[in-house]
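Module 6 notes. Inverse folding takes a fixed backbone as the condition and produces residue identities as the prediction. Think of it as a translation problem where the source language is geometry and the target language is the twenty amino acids. Below is one complete input and output pair. Work through it position by position during the lab.
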């Protein structure tokens, strides 16, 4: 995806030292912030990347793919760290960086603890915050936890709000955000997806061949959210085995999150099944390759709800609520929760009903045109 300069030479000289801090720490954040970083690199503004490494290995995969070298790396990840410990250490480390550097604005993305801590520290230093993917809401502060409250607090702290859709914009206006502080941009995850397919055209069958699914019909599964740990996840694992019993030629590919709370459930339940392929978390490139050729996707991920429609893949969402109602309304995704019978029933229905499958696969993606990052950077250039 090509990025065009948004201002001329004189403006560049006037603004060349205006630094924009980009704070992110998880793989989904990095995927969605990477195109913003690339657009900033081709603008008068100077991006400064602060990687918290809330997810170490998965973050590094994306940084390498997009050619991003962090200016600061907090390396914050610890096994089984509490939210309180994570938040306090993030605030302390970010405060040190902000005390020694002169940033003109901070960009954060989405709803992670890194996002909230970054916005809060920026506020403490009286530096305006721009919130990418602002305005997503479930209206339940404990679902997803802690993401729903993180993004709501960011909505209070931020100066500039970049909602991906009109629905997200309305959510923010209902909470009292002034319309002149809002810019509907589309979602930067579509920018990232198009950048990968444009710039990394060697999306070959090599990875699918390596794991033994090339040419096969398979379901792609991801599941990691904190609210699904324990019994909800076990229910879904049992549903997956039920689905495979119903369709003897079907396979499942499941890149398993590195968190022990996830792996301690998934592996005992699924690792011995001959038609289930369990892998470590994948680099973004092979993951996109797997999405492209999958039959459908079962996930509790937010970002995949946005990416899958761009590839024409029906998505069943393993959650009770979603902050992306646009996907449900557009018909590209369906909420099924984690109940064993519900997951089984909805999956069987999609795999058996060609009309229903086609309806979801052909529904229009409501999340943008791949130019969100350019809109964000132009807005910053116009307002800093």
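Target side of the pair, the amino acids:
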């Amino acid at each position: 995806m090509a990025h065009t300069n948004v201002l001329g030479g004189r403006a560049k000289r006037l603004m060349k030292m205006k630094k924009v801090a980009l704070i992110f720490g998880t793989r989904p954040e990095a995927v969605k912030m990477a195109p913003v970083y690339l657009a900033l690199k081709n603008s008068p503004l100077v991006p400064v990347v602060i990687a918290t490494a809330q997810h170490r290995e998965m973050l590094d995969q994306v940084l390498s793919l997009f050619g991003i070298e962090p200016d600061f790396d907090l390396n914050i990840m610890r096994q089984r760290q509490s939210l309180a410990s994570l938040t306090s250490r993030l605030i302390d480390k970010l405060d040190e960086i902000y005390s020694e550097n002169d940033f003109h604005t901070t960009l954060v993305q989405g709803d992670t603890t890194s996002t909230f801590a970054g916005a809060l520290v920026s506020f403490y230093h009286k530096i305006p915050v721009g919130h990418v993917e602002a305005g997503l809401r479930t209206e339940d502060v404990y679902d997803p936890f802690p993401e729903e409250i993180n993004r709501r607090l960011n909505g209070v702290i931020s100066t500039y709000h970049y909602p991906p859709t009109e629905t997200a914009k309305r959510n923010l206006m209902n909470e009292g955000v002034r319309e002149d502080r809002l810019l509907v941009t589309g979602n930067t995850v579509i920018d990232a997806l198009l950048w990968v397919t444009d710039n990394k055209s060697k999306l070959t069958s090599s990875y699918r061949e390596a794991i033994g699914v090339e040419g096969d019909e398979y379901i792609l599964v991801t599941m990691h959210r904190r609210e699904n740990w324990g019994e909800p996840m076990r229910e879904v694992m049992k549903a997956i085995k039920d689905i495979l019993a119903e369709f003897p030629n079907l396979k499942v590919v499941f890149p398993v999150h590195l968190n022990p709370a996830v792996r301690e459930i998934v592996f005992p339940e699924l690792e011995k099944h001959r038609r289930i392929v369990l892998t470590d978390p994948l680099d973004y490139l092979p993951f996109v390759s797997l999405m492209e050729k999958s039959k459908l996707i079962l996930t509790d991920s937010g970002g995949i709800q946005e990416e899958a429609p761009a590839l024409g893949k029906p998505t069943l969402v393993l959650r009770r609520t979603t902050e992306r109602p646009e996907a449900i309304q557009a018909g590209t995704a369906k909420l099924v929760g984690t109940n064993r019978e519900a997951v089984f029933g909805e999956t069987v229905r999609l795999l058996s009903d060609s009309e229903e499958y086609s309806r979801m696969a052909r529904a229009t993606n409501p999340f943008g045109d791949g130019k969100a990052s350019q809109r964000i950077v132009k807005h910053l250039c116009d307002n800093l």
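Reference fact for the lab report: The longest helix spans residues 83-100.
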